[in-house]
Structure formats: C-alpha cells, structure tokens
Design brief:
single chain; alpha/beta; Udp-n-acetylmuramoylalanyl-d-glutamate--2,6- Diaminopimelate Ligase, Chain: A, domain 1; UDP-N-acetylmuramoyl-L-alanine:D-glutamate ligase; Protein-Tyrosine Phosphatase, Chain A; 5 domains; 14-stranded mixed sheet; 9-stranded mixed sheet; 26 helices; 38 strands; 30% helix; 22% strand; binds pyridoxal-5'-phosphate; MurE/MurF_N; EC 5.1.1.1
C-alpha cells in the first residue's frame, strides 16, 4: 500500500471507530487496520482488514448475511444489532451503532480528511457519469487519479468511492446524486470537494422536491467550501441561481456561448473552440452530438482549471469515445462468451469487469486478456501484484498478458500466464479454439487496439443488433424496489425471452440483484433459465399436463388455473415426494385464465383431497391498472381477490404469498402491493402510463446500419408493388432491417421513422423481409451510418404508436436472428 511507513501511519484502526463515530465495540477489541469496506456478502472476501457493514434498506437487511460473511472470512463488522448467536462468531469484532450507514459515511469522511489534493465533485440531473469518465480520461495519462467506479453516487456509493483514496493519488473525481432533500450535505462531508461541476438540472426526482429551485438549492450544497464551480452559462436556471451569490467564497467558472461566460465556447463542424482571458484552444472532436459535446465541455474546462497541458488535452480528447463506460457482453466463437472492455484499462474498472464476467459465466472457466495498465503513480511491481491478487480472488484460470510492462512482470501472476509484448504478437499466433466454451474478459487500454482481438473472437454478426443495457436494468429494478412497501417481494417477469432482451442475461442480472421470484410463460422457458444459471424459484404460467413430468427436475412451479388442471396435477403428484408447489390464479375480471370466484369452494375441496400439494402463492391479474378510467374496476378486482384469498388460506391453514399488481399497478396502487409484485415492462424502462418515465432508463436499443444510399429522380417508385413514389429528387437509404427482424410491416410508407445522424427520417415504400427504405433527402447520410430503430429516441412507446400497437409487442417481436449485445459499465 503506497510508501510503507507513511501509509501505516495513515491507516484508521478498527479500534479508532468509537473516537470517530457514535457507537461501541463488542467482541474482540482489535487494533486491526481498516483496509477495505464491504456491504455485500456475495463479493469475494478481500482479506485481512476487511470490514462488513450491515446496512438496513427498505427491502434488504445486511444483518441477515452476517453469518455468510463470517464464513467467507470477515471478522470485522459494523452492526445495528448484535447477532443472537454471537458466540458462533469466534474472534470477530463488532462495532455496535444506531446507524451503520452513518458510520460508513463518517469513516469515509475521516479517511478523506487525511489527504490534501484537488477533488472534483460532479452533480446534476444527467450526464454525471459521462462527465466524470471524460475528465478522468483527460487527466489520467498525466497524473494519478482516483474516481468513482460506475455511477456510484449514492449515500452508499460515495463513501465506497472515496475509500480507495491513497498517498500516490494526485486528484480525485467523484459524482454525487440525490433522490431526496437533505442528502447532499452528507455527501459533501464525505467528498470534501475543492472543485465542483454542475452538469444540468432536469426533471429526475422532481416529485420529492417542492420546486426545481429547491432541488437546485439542495444540489448546490455539494459545493459549499469549494474554490471553483464549473457550470454552463447557457443553462438559464443554473446561471440565474448562481448570479444570486448563493455560494459565498466559491468562484463561478461559467462556460457557454452567451456573455458572462469565462470560457467562450463555440463549435464549428467537428472543431471545439474555447477562448478565455489567458488563452484559447481548438480541439478536434471525436463526436459531435450536442449532449456529448456539452458533457465534454464540462470536462475540458475542469481539466484546464486544473492546469492540464493543452497538447495533452487535445491528444486525450481525440481518443475519447462518446460513451466511455461501455463494457459489453458478446457471443464469441466456439461457444465462448466475450466481455469486451477494449476501451480502457484501469485497475478500478477491472473488478467491475470481472464481476460481470463471473455473473454471466455460470461456472465455466474465465480467461482474461489484459494489456499494460497505463496508470500514473503506483509502482509497477506493486500494481501487478494487486492485479494478480484480484484475478486470483475472482478465480481466473488463465491470463494472456499483452504489453511491454505487464509481460515483463509475468512472474507476478500465480495462474497460467501467456505473455506477449504486443497485440500484434498475440494476434499472429491466436488460436480461436483455445477459448472454446469459456468466458473471456478482454480488457485493454485504448492504444492497444484490443478491438482487433474482439473481432477475431466474436461470432460473426448480422449488423442489426439489439443493445441491452444491463446498468439501466439495474437502475429500473432499484427504482421499483425503492417504491415498494417494506418487505414486499419482487417477481420478475421473464416471459417471451425477457420481453425480447434475452432471458439468461436478464435473469442472471436480476438474480444478482436479489429478485425473489421469476415467472415465465412456458415450461421450456423455465428449462432454458435453469440451463443458463438462474436458480431463483420459477413460476410457469402455462404448464400443460404433458409437461408435469419435466417440472420437478428443473424445480418449475406451475400456475394452476382450472379445476381439471388442478385435478390432473393432484393425480400426477400422488406418491411423488418432489412435486413442486403450485400457484393458484384467480380470475377477478381479466377473464383470461383463472378460477372463477364460484369455483373457489371446489378448489378447496380438491386441495383437501391432495394434501401433499403445497400452495406457494395465490394471485390474480389486473385488467386496467394503467388507466384511471378503470380504477373503480381495479378496486372491485382487488376486493374480489382478497375475498378469494381469505377463503383459500383459511382452509389451507397457512398464508401463501399474495400478489396482484403488475408494473403499472405498483405505483398506482401502493396498498395492493401485498406480499409481492410482478414487474415486467417497467424493468425495461418503459412505463405504460408514462408517469414514471422520467425515473426510468431505457434498456433495449434496436440498431442497424445503412447498406446503401441512392439518388432517385422525381417520378420513380421504391420497393415492392411500386408502393413508394418520388415526387421530387429523393435520396433513399436502404437499411438492414425488415419484418423478419421484427420491424412491423405496418410501418412502411412513411408511417414509421428511424433515427439516422440525429434526424428522425420516414420510411418510403413497403417494409421488406430483410430491408427497409428510408427517405433521407436533405440529410448527410452515408453507407455504414448507424440507424436507431427504437431506444431512447424514438422510444418503443413512440414506435408502437406509429404501428398502432403497444410497446410490449414492439419489444417482443425482435426476432431471434437479431444478435443481442449486453452493455454495462
Ligand atoms: C406479463 C405479466 C405481468 C407483467 O406485466 P407488466 O405490465 O409488463 O408489468 C404481470 N402478471 C402477469 C400474470 C403477466 O402475465
């Protein structure tokens, strides 16, 4: 850890805790140095000095995992109550406090106080993570920088982000996010920033604040005590707010096009120009969309204010990628799976990339292809020793080490290691088969051009791809968890290939996030989930009699919706000890499947005849939860459901799980969340009522490319049946998607639009099986350009409207021949 003696002096000891935070030590009072912090017993134990914090959330209590953590190796604990069986925890130390989260925050704040260095804090409604990643990439080649991993900006994420701060660091960059009043002051105390950036202010979390101004005032608390605050003067609300001199002692550093900006910014083509009193720079932009350029300006101004050399700045900007944090999961050749992180290689990102590889490897061996880590500061030998420890702790079986420094440090690695001095040297002798069946993490600094390795190992792809953002999935899942009443379970709906996004990847991610139950439509979907490493309980909504024999081997629990089905299941289960429990569906008004209220008595009788059948849950489905015009009907459905539930559970003598609402019902009918909710489309960032849309992030993005562009004269026709007609000179682009890919044929002839180079452009002519033509007249569109069919813009909701259907159909129609690619941080 850094330079010996100094680091030793700096470490906070577990026995220091009572001096720093409210609480007392119980069990062994140890002078152990606190080296790492964890809230998650699923993670690999990180060795001596690791502290496990038991934190209580609305739906999760870290205290339930104390024993699991102990068994994995933790001996230092911060708790709000001691375990009842404390004598089992031999040699363990507990810090007993009334608020574990506060202890975590105070500890991180005390750690932060030990260092004096420039620390940048970033907040704003959007773009925090991107601004942070850009700034990091601008600085990290010349100084040693610590930053928040991923988008760790919460009450928990911030302390964990600040903790790795060490002697060799020369700057820190942390993001801070809040969802309710009062939170920012706590984050400020932890980060103790010297420079602030406010990216922008939008509608996210509006509901919890009385006004936009109140939200802005709350966010600005982060910057109290900063020397400088960077902001865009063209954001009117922010500019006006700051002109009120609300932050005494903080110098406002505005940039923008208008007057009053310290940095006058303009873009000409793909050049960004900044001019200020002391100088000016011109930078070639690697991208030109407004959002990315705005995010970049924040980072560039911050870097200039931190004294970055201008030629380094220009060079670093030229190699930025628009969306820097993308780590993607792809299908490889010979049944392998690739985790592609060929954009950057920093030590902090390695753990996240490995965790993604582990989550999706389900037991298959993991190999890592790793380049030199180009990170200023830490001593090389130490660095690669840490890399080795990380790879070992994650169970990596093989390393391909590429680059002059990592290959020279080959003896640091205690696993099979193949060293190469360069990417070319590896490519020359690469044998694609060597990774058959494995999960391969490919992580390299930009200059190593690891995309060449990815190209060689990737299964050949159709250029139409459904991009699935697993980070967005996590965000949406956590959003729904946050609006659940305490203790309410989640059943995640993974039917229809998880709404088109891929049941294995979606299922494993939600399993990792601790969803409680899974539901699928058919037994085969359940079998697939099991084969893909999902071991949560699974409810199957349509399990015909022929499938019963298959259910026990895969622990699939059938929904039972009719008397004949119940009787068949009862007969079949006779003498079978392993018959899975059932889920009883009551029809309260949907009139699709389920027992009528008049049949409940008969159900009770049949259940009495087959006492070995266990009922896991009783549920019903709402017909109009998304529409307030049907609210009266919904209340009637709920009352009917409760009556049936009462009757059934009284006779059973126990209380099966009670569940009623789907996505739209979760927020609209809080009191009907009961024991569990069934969430489907909301996980994908699509909200049928659009009420919560601002809080959700779109998960799936269907994209393709332009295959050809041609100019047609007036009076020509386009496509089959000469359906598209040109009445003037018309530029037509043919794109590589058709109805066989799931693009509805009804979107032809201008009904649908796609996004090319930021412009929504209409179809022309009929949609063909594999291709569609688009009228691109007047827009600079070329062969190979990316086309967004649905995603953020246009949204699946919007496309559904054009096609006169609902977003569910748009999502689930994307055909299997379209490759899925999974993105994460
Ligand atoms: C599909 C389905 C859901 C999920 O509905 P969403 O509107 O996508 O949240 C819930 N319950 C049942 C019975 C379903 O079939």
């Amino acid at each position: 850890m850094g330079n010996g003696v100094d680091a030793m002096r700096r470490n906070i000891l577990f026995s220091d805790l009572p001096k720093l935070c409210k609480g007392k030590i119980s069990g062994v009072d140890t002078p152990s140095a606190i080296l790492s912090l964890s809230l998650d017993s699923r993670k690999v134990f990180s060795g001596e000095g690791a502290v496990y914090f038991a934190i209580k959330g609305p739906n999760h209590d870290g205290h339930s995992f104390l024993w699991e953590a102990y068994q994995k190796g933790w001996r230092l604990f911060v708790v709000e109550s001691l375990p009842k069986d404390i004598e089992r925890f031999e040699n363990a130390s507990f810090f007993l406090t009334s608020d574990s989260l506060q202890t975590l925050q105070e500890l991180a704040a005390a750690h932060r106080r030990r260092f004096s260095l420039p620390v940048v804090a970033i907040t704003g409604s959007n773009g925090k993570t991107i601004v942070k990643e850009y700034l990091y990439q601008l600085l990290a080649s010349s100084i040693s920088v610590v930053k928040s991993p991923k988008s760790w900006n919460s009450q928990v994420g911030v302390p964990l982000s600040v903790w790795p701060l060490a002697d060799h660091h020369e700057a820190g960059i942390f993001e801070a996010g809040i969802s309710q009043p009062g939170e920012m002051a706590r984050l400020k105390n932890i980060i103790q920033p010297t420079i602030g950036i406010i990216s922008n202010i939008g509608p996210a979390h509006d509901a919890l604040f009385t006004s936009r101004e109140q939200k802005l005032a709350e966010k600005m608390k982060l910057f109290e005590g900063c020397k400088k605050l960077i902001y865009c003067t063209d954001h009117f609300a922010i500019d006006r707010f700051l002109s009120g001199n609300v932050l005494p002692g903080v110098a406002g550093i505005g940039w923008g096009q208008g007057k009053g900006a310290k940095y006058a910014v303009s873009t000409v083509g793909s050049k960004l120009k900044l001019a200020w009193e002391m100088g000016k720079v011109e930078i070639d932009l690697p991208f030109t969309d407004d959002k990315s350029v705005e995010n970049l300006c924040h980072a560039v101004v911050a870097a200039l204010e931190m004294g970055i050399n201008q030629s380094i700045l220009a060079r670093q900007v030229s190699v930025l990628s628009a969306i820097p944090m993308r780590l993607s999961l792809k299908e490889g050749v010979f049944g392998s799976r690739l985790v592609d992180d060929s954009y950057n290689n920093d030590f902090q990102g390695l753990e996240a990339a490995l965790d993604l590889a582990i989550t999706h490897s389900h037991g298959k061996p993991i190999s890592v292809v790793l380049s030199d880590i180009l990170q200023a500061g830490e001593n090389e030998k130490e660095l690669y020793k840490h890399v080795n420890d990380m790879l070992v702790s994650k169970g990596v079986s093989k390393l391909v080490a590429i680059g002059p420094t990592i290959s020279a440090n080959g003896d640091a690695f205690r696993m099979a290691c193949e060293p190469y001095v360069s990417t070319e040297a590896f490519l020359e002798q690469i044998k694609e088969k060597q990774f058959a069946g494995q999960t391969v993490l490919i992580k390299g600094a930009r200059s190593f051009r690891f995309e060449e390795i990815v190209k060689r190992l990737q299964a050949k792809v159709h250029r139409t791809v459904l991009e699935v953002n697993l980070e967005a999935l996590q965000h949406n899942f956590q959003f729904y968890k946050s609006i659940l009443e305490p203790g309410v379970k989640t059943m995640v709906m993974l039917k229809a290939f998880a709404y088109g996004s891929g049941s294995g990847e979606i299922g494993r991610t939600l399993q990792y996030l601790k969803a409680d139950y899974v539901a699928v439509a058919y037994p085969d979907e359940g079998v697939l989930l099991r084969e893909q490493g999902v071991h949560l309980p699974v409810m199957v909504m349509n399990a015909p009699e022929e499938s019963f024999d298959k259910l026990p081997a895969y622990s699939l629990e059938p929904e039972i919706f009719s008397l004949s089905q119940l009787q068949n299941y009862g007969e079949w289960s006779q003498g079978k000890s392993e018959a899975p429990p059932i889920h009883i569906k009551v029809d309260t008004g949907m009139h699709r499947l389920g027992f009528a209220t008049s049949e409940i008595e008969a159900v009770v009788k049949l259940l009495g005849r087959y006492p070995t059948i266990k009922v896991a849950s009783i549920f019903s489905h709402l017909a109009g939860s998304e529409n307030n015009a049907f609210d009266d009907f919904t209340h009637v459905q709920a009352r009917t459901f409760l009556d049936c539930y009462e009757q059934l559970s009284r006779h059973l003598g126990y209380k099966p799980i009670r569940h009623l609402v789907n996505t739209a019902g979760i927020s609209r009918f809080k009191s009907y969340q009961f024991d569990m909710v069934r969430v489907g489309i909301g996980l994908h960032g699509i909200e049928p009522t659009e009420e919560e849309q601002g809080q959700l992030t779109v998960v799936a993005r269907l994209k393709t490319v332009v295959s050809q562009v041609r100019r047609l004269a007036a009076g020509q026709t386009v496509g089959y049946s000469r359906a598209g007609k040109t009445n003037k000179n018309t530029d037509v682009a043919t794109i590589a998607i058709g109805y066989a890919d799931g693009y509805p044929r009804s979107l032809g002839n201008g009904k649908g639009k796609v996004l090319i180079n930021e412009q929504l452009l209409p179809t022309i002519g009929s949609v063909c099986m594999d291709m569609t033509m688009v009228d691109v007249t007047g827009v600079d569109v070329r062969e190979g350009d990316e086309v967004v069919v649905f995603g953020e813009h246009p949204s699946a909701n919007q496309v559904a409207e054009w096609a006169d259907t609902i977003p569910y159909e748009i999502l689930t129609s994307v055909s299997e021949r379209v490759k899925r690619e999974y993105l994460s941080f």
